[in-house]
Amino acid sequence: MKYAFDHIHTINKLLQAQKKIILLTDFDGTLAPIQEHPDLAALPEEARRVLLKISQNRAFFLGIITGRSLRQIKKLVNIPGLLYAANHGIELEGPGVRFSSSEAKKARYNLWHIYMRLFKSLHHIEGVYLEDKGYSVSLHYRLVKKAKDVEFIATTLTSITKPYLERNALSLSTGKMVYEIRPPVTWNKATTIQWLLTNYFPLNFGEDALLIYLGDDKADIEVFHALKGKELTIFVGNPSDTSAADYYVNSPEEVTVFLEHLYQQKNTEGKTDLKSSNSLE
């Protein structure tokens, strides 16, 4: 995996070869720095400015693909007219599409039951945060300081969820210091993007487009594998954490610089040199 800014001219050639760009990006850890508590997350103003410019440029179709709920991500990004794929694709809302999984709705009772049992079992642990996202439940333990408490959380979670997992009533996945309890649906970030490519983008944006995806977590790595060799994928973080993406950048701050570069490339209609190119080389 190569550092994106060391290969910016190669990336420019890809951008110039396609008239349009489908730009899909994760939120936490990609557009916005990961915070100790998920409620503290905020989209930096510079990132918002770039996203707003991109959303208003006809060369781009912009989408946010996130594990957050639809309500959360719309409030955090607060840019109209985007495609929002929330809860890992269980909820979709954007130009010409509004969808929520019927299978996920059926799992709502089980999710609420799990939420209440986890709350009763873990509420005494300092730093644990249980999040009801409607169609999924997130158990955050980033702020848990004691190793024995982290072990207790894992043991308790396994005990409570095991009967549901064994009968395929729910699914369980992990992220950065978080457990995700989800409906037993095939929807995830990778399958959502594949569905969009087949059923949505050809009709709504045109086939002459380069898909660019940016992400930082395990769910994003699944996307990188699914798109391997087909599109342009950017990992955000330590390159030793994955080799699945085409390129990497180090941080959400560098994501903003990269997005500004994408915008300038299409806004200047194929020029390969930026006024600010010295900062990229």
CATH topology of the largest domain: Rossmann fold
What's the CATH first level of the largest domain? Alpha Beta
Number-wise, the strands total 13
Largest sheet: 9 strands, mixed
Give the helices and strands, then pairings.
Layout: E1 2-3, H1 8-17, E2 20-25, H2 45-55, E3 60-65, H3 70-77, E4 83-86, E5 91-94, E6 97-100, H4 102-106, H5 108-122, E7 129-132, E8 137-140, H6 147-166, E9 171-175, E10 178-182, H7 189-199, H8 201-204, E11 209-215, H9 218-226, E12 232-236, E13 247-249, H10 252-267
Parallel strand pairs: 1-13, 2-3, 2-11, 3-4, 11-12, 12-13
Antiparallel strand pairs: 4-5, 5-6, 7-8, 8-10, 9-10
Q: Could you explain how this protein is built, in words?
A:
This protein is of the alpha/beta class. It has 2 domains: 192 residues, Rossmann fold; 79 residues, Alpha-Beta Plaits (2-Layer Sandwich), CATH 3.30.70.1020. Helix content is 39%, strand content 21%. The chain contains 10 helices and 13 strands. It has a 9-stranded mixed β-sheet, with helices on both faces. The chain has a 4-stranded antiparallel β-sheet with strand order 7-8-10-9, with helices on one face. β7 and β8 form a beta hairpin. It is globular. The protein starts with a strand and ends in a 14-residue tail after the last helix.
